[in-house]
Design brief:
With 316 residues, the protein is of the alpha/beta class. It folds into two domains: 2-135, Rossmann fold; 149-315, Reverse transcriptase/Diguanylate cyclase domain (Alpha-Beta Plaits). It is 50% helix and 17% strand. It contains twelve helices and ten strands. β7 and β8 (221-227) form a beta hairpin. α3 (39-45) packs parallel to α4. The longest helix has 25 residues, at 114-138. The model is unreliable at 1-6 (pLDDT under 50). Bound molecules: magnesium ion.
């Protein structure tokens, strides 16, 4: 356990050198530490791999404050899952609530007992490590519990190869929640997570065949792989999916098209699989993009005409 913890990396963000020195001194025997003296520098640090396993974030800083930095971290799919703990001299109840609102996992107020601060850090690092391991081993998304991107990629490649071999049609559905950033900004990060879970389960239940795979593809993106499914059958599933999310009636006052959370859906079918699975992925992706362009809350269906495009690319 000790060895694993020594590998964990913590980013400490604070504008005062004395605070950084105290925190780094406390953490150094157990973790690898990186420091940033303001929000801009913190975000810069998050552009390089390996990403930290935890972030300790001061609230009052010149320029961007801690809340703003946290919102940016949680808005970026690449950094969204890194736990953030606020460390600050502020201790009003409102500030604490705001910290959780923007997506922090914990809140430590100065002056803090070094032992308690260290224990909290250790707990969150351990939780993150277990969550990461489960995701890796089970191929499940930590938040929603449905298959993750890794499982999606493996399943897609295996099933696509089978379709090529037996020349069976193959469909792919891509889904994106409409105005999800506005939802998060308005209702807060916790409600945003709840919304993601509800939508994920709703999509998952609308595509119930065991031959299919429904996965969380990215932040607010989901995807269904439908092997041996022609366009007509896949369109039925796509309609069920869009209806099931509408039926959830999750309130969304910031949506520009409805009172409730809606999704944009892209469907692409390869009736005669050719070339690489990635071609179909980019078509499904393009279909979602068109659904967005056309006003969202709808399905765009790329059927056989698109086969010409696939063949064209495959023959080059
Ligand atoms: Mg400060």
């Amino acid at each position: 356990m000790q060895e694993k913890e020594e590998l964990s990396k913590i980013l400490v963000v604070d504008d005062e050198k004395i605070n950084i020195d105290v925190l780094v001194g406390l953490l150094k025997p157990y973790y690898r530490t990186v420091v940033a003296k303001d929000g801009m520098q913190a975000l810069k640090r998050l552009e390089t791999q390996p990403l930290p396993d935890l972030i300790l974030l001061d609230i009052i800083m010149p320029g961007m404050n801690g809340y703003e930095v946290c919102i940016k971290i949680k808005d970026n799919p690449a950094t969204r899952d890194i736990p953030v703990i606020f460390i600050t001299g502020k201790h009003e109840e409102d500030d604490e609530a705001r910290g959780f609102w923007v997506g922090a996992v914990d809140y430590i107020t100065k002056p803090f007992s070094p032992l308690i601060a260290l224990s909290r850090v250790k707990n969150h690092i351990e939780l993150k490590r277990r969550g990461d391991m489960l995701e890796r081993l089970a191929g499940l998304d930590g938040l929603t519990g449905i298959p993750n991107r890794r499982q999606f990629d493996q399943f897609l490649n295996a099933e696509w190869k089978r379709s090529l071999r037996y020349n069976r049609s193959f469909s792919l559905i891509f889904i994106d929640i409409d105005f999800f950033k506005l939802f998060n900004d308005h209702y807060g990060h916790t409600k945003g997570d709840e919304c993601l879970k509800k939508v994920a389960h709703s999509i998952f239940n609308a595509a119930p065949r065991t031959e299919d795979l429904t996965a969380r593809y990215g932040g607010e993106e989901f995807a269904c792989i439908l092997p041996e499914t022609g366009n007509e059958g896949a369109l039925k599933v796509a309609r069920r999916i869009i209806e099931s999310v509408r039926a959830l009636k999750v309130p969304h006052v910031q949506s520009k098209i409805a009172d409730y959370v809606t999704i944009s859906v892209g469907l692409a079918t390869a009736s005669q699989p050719l070339g690489r699975a990635l071609n179909l992925v980019s078509l499904a992706d393009k279909a979602v993009y068109q659904a967005k362009e056309k006003g969202r809350n709808q399905i765009v269906n790329f059927n056989d005409i698109e086969q010409l495009i696939i063949r064209y690319h495959a023959s080059r």
